[in-house]
Amino acid sequence: MNTGHNRYKSQGAKIALSLALACLLLGNAHAHRGAAEEVDNCNTRVGFERVHLTAYTPTLSGNREYCNIIPGVGPTKLVFDYEGKSLRHVSVEFEITKEPDGRRVFYREPQKVKTGTANLSVDFSRYGAGNYLAHISIVDKDKRLDTHIPFSVGLESVPGKNYTPLLITIASLSLLAYGLFRAALKHTPEQNPEA
Questions:
Q1: Are 138 and 92 in contact (CB under 8 A)?
Q2: Using only C-alpha atoms, what is the Rg of the chain?
């Protein structure tokens, strides 16, 4: 008689456990800077090296870091980090253009960045919200190697943390606990106090 009830209880536990594990795995899949070959919209290859862009809007959001979506329009620090050492020995040019017309809003002449970190300051309030393109160019005599990192300023908000997997996990575990509690109540013999 109990085999059918135990079978349903066992299936419910398996479903809840599967949902909880799936939600935990999904919750960890949204990291910004992962493996070397993982897609990262703020990381580009310049020659044989990678360059990573980080943006800060100190007057608008303190020291919060942004990448390809900068939500506020104002003074912005753009930091380009070389992930290797060979770019430190060649001249690199930086240019920021507003798209789609390609109007230049910032330019820094080719120079060597021995520290491996180029810090640029752009006041986007002078140019307005829009789509922009960071041009990073290796310049050697008459040769030029140009790569780009697209980003937007003031067009969209930065996606926040996704709490959906956590809520699904909590709901699944709550349903499991409720089901186990109900099953335990059915199998507990009733006690009638004798008067």
A1: yes
A2: 27
Quick: pLDDT tens for 40-56. Answer: 678 888 888 899 999 99
- Helix, strand, coil percent values for the chain (each to nearest 5): 30, 35, 30
Indicate the pTM of the whole model: 0.60
> Which tens digit of pLDDT belongs to each residue from 54-76?
999 998 888 888 988 899 999 99
Neighbour tally for 22: CB within 10 Å = 14
Nearest to 119 by CA among 66, 56, 174: 56
Nearest to 46, CA basis, from 153, 119, 139? 139
Note whether 166 and 23 are within 8 A (CB). yes
- Tokens coding 7: 């079978």
